[in-house]
Amino acid sequence: MCRNNPPTHEKATLRRGTPPAPLALQAQDGAGLASDLFSPKRVIKTNLAGYALLSVGANYEQKVGLKTTVGLLAGYKLPSTIHVEAVGNLDGERQTYTGDVEPQGLFINPYFRFYPKEAFKCFYIEAFTRYFNYTFLVPYEYEKNGGIINANLDGKASAFGGGLGLGVQFAIAPRVFLDFNAGFGMAVGNVHLETNDPNLELEDYLIIKHNIEQYQDDADVQVFMLGDILTDPKAEATSSKAWADFDNKLFPIMRGGISIGYAF
Description:
Blueprint: H1 21-38, E1 42-47, H2 48-52, E2 55-63, E3 68-77, E4 82-90, E5 93-101, E6 104-114, E7 122-144, E8 147-173, E9 176-195, H3 202-218, E10 222-223, E11 234-237, E12 242-263
Antiparallel strand pairs: 1-2, 1-12, 2-3, 3-6, 4-5, 4-10, 6-7, 7-8, 8-9, 9-12, 11-12
């Protein structure tokens, strides 16, 4: 575990066959060097907590110094429902908007760790970067010819950023490590929303475009954890689709989990 062995105090005696002190120190130094040479240099892990969130990935950590490592976490987020809530003013009234989205896609997370005690062992401080590219569907309703059309917006979101994290890692068996970590940061990226419902025509898509632009003038919506991500849209429409782009938006990025791995 993560504790230091207490120092021992023994009376030094010189017996027949015992090497002089300088030779004993050399033997200890040689043993320490051998231990460092044959100690694990890398760990391959998987995040057990990620599976509960329908996220699969692999984590590779490489020793680069006595107290430092670098690593790469990469994986794929499987579709899972996330409830989104937004609050804003529309037509002079405070309104709440809710909906469910199912993001899925790739994420890549390089990182650097400093262990005050020894690489791979005990408490560490982490600096990480993160890139993600997710797709998702946003359900919406559209009124036409006295009826309601239920459809989905196709969404894409990608961003790059970084942050800081803390954690602790220790061996639970020879060459088997357990890693607990958590971190937070911010990323900058873009969102693209598009609808190409076959039930709609050019006039409908132009109305959707106008509504997006009008909405920007009338509403000040704050999305939980994402802030004013729905401001400053660039909306366009053709005879086959309507879309909106939200560029250079801030996204929170959270890093955490419980990983188990094998060292070699």
